[in-house]
Write a structure and sequence with these properties.
Order of helices and strands: EHHEHEHEHEHEHEHEHHEHH
CATH class: Alpha Beta
CATH topology: TIM Barrel
Number of strands: 9
CATH superfamily: Metal-dependent hydrolases
Structural class: alpha/beta
CATH architecture: Alpha-Beta Barrel
Radius of gyration: 18 Å
Largest sheet: 6 strands, parallel
Distance between the termini: 23 Å
Helix content: 40-55%
Length: about 325
């Protein structure tokens, strides 16, 4: 079954010199915590599209935006040298890539701090394939605060954050609320005129953890027409194995409806993935686990690709 994964942190691995065309080799110092994504694994996992997160130093400065530029250049170089990967911006692009037996790559920015209060950077990066911006990433910034990290506080969406939301919607860039504290999270959902996403998270209805979102947040995302991508990290899921991921997926479906849930693995994100979901080759194990849990075929297809595809279409 074809898969769309909303979030992997592969660009930094490319920046550090990984050859994505060949099967990954896990470095001993980071065993199980990175090197989850490469072309052969994506092919085996039947991945037709994956969101690659660009992340930077946790403060507002030119150095942060420079790190984004370096990762983006590394991504562009990798795609230029591969016949199996292609940059995508729309659902139509993803369908075309699938028809050509390619995996579509779209980009996300992790944290508004990397813009250094310059929304013109967002416009430029959007032209180069950025389709979503995660408003916070473990550090307070001019738009919002994180749910956990430096400067975490319940300040809500600032005036500058409102302006950023408006500009992102104008550019067709999705707002991602992973890592964002609840007040700002709810502010964005109430103000947004477009679907919002939570690209990679767990849910508190299954495991009460600071990294996870609660039922009110799930419903708020669903009300925008958006989606919640469930990550594969046992430390946030509360237990290990595909069954743990399935529990979080089904909870989102129960609370927000079948159109509200999808996949956001967080591969290459310096987190150890769930047992049986060790890398991008293993996505079909999740499909099987959903089937074993009694999920309807329509729900499995929605989780695997259709929900994410719908949001990217919009």
């Amino acid at each position: 079954m074809h898969i769309i994964d909303l979030h992997a942190d592969t660009p930094m691995m490319l920046r550090l010199g990984r050859d994505i065309s060949t099967p990954h080799r896990r470095l001993p110092a980071f065993a199980n915590y990175c090197s989850h994504v490469d072309v052969p694994a994506l092919k085996k996992g039947e991945v037709i599209a994956q969101g690659w997160g660009l992340w930077s130093l946790p403060f507002e400065s030119a150095r942060s935006s420079g790190m984004i530029e370096k990762q983006m250049s590394a991504v562009e170089k990798a795609l230029e040298s591969s016949e199996d990967l292609v940059m995508v911006r729309t659902g139509r692009d993803i369908r075309r890539a699938a028809d050509n037996n390619q995996t579509g790559i779209f980009l996300g920015l992790e944290g508004a701090h990397c813009l250094d209060k310059d929304t013109a950077k967002l416009a430029g990066w959007a032209r180069r394939g950025v389709r979503y911006i995660t408003l916070a990433h473990f550090v307070d910034n001019y738009a919002v605060s994180p749910s956990y990290g430096r400067g975490a506080c319940a300040k809500g969406l600032t005036n500058e954050g409102h302006d950023l939301l408006d500009e992102a919607e104008r550019l067709g860039v999705l707002i991602d609320l992973a890592h964002v504290e609840k007040n700002a999270f709810m502010d964005v959902c109430s103000k947004s005129t477009k679907p919002v996403i939570v690209s990679h998270t767990g849910v508190r209805g299954v495991h009460d953890h600071w990294r996870n979102i609660d039922d009110e947040q799930i419903r708020a995302v669903a009300d925008t027409g958006g989606v919640v991508g469930i990550m594969f990290a046992p430390r946030f899921l509360g237990s290990d194995g595909t069954e743990a991921v399935v529990k979080h997926i089904l909870h989102v479906s129960d609370v927000g409806g079948t159109q509200a849930t999808c996949i956001g693995s967080d591969f290459d994100g310096m987190v150890k993935p769930a047992r049986d979901l060790a890398d991008a080759a293993c996505f079909q194990a999740l499909v099987k686990a959903l089937d074993t849990a009694g999920a309807a075929v329509d729900l499995i297809e929605a989780v695997a690709r259709l929900n994410a595809l719908r949001v990217l279409d919009e």
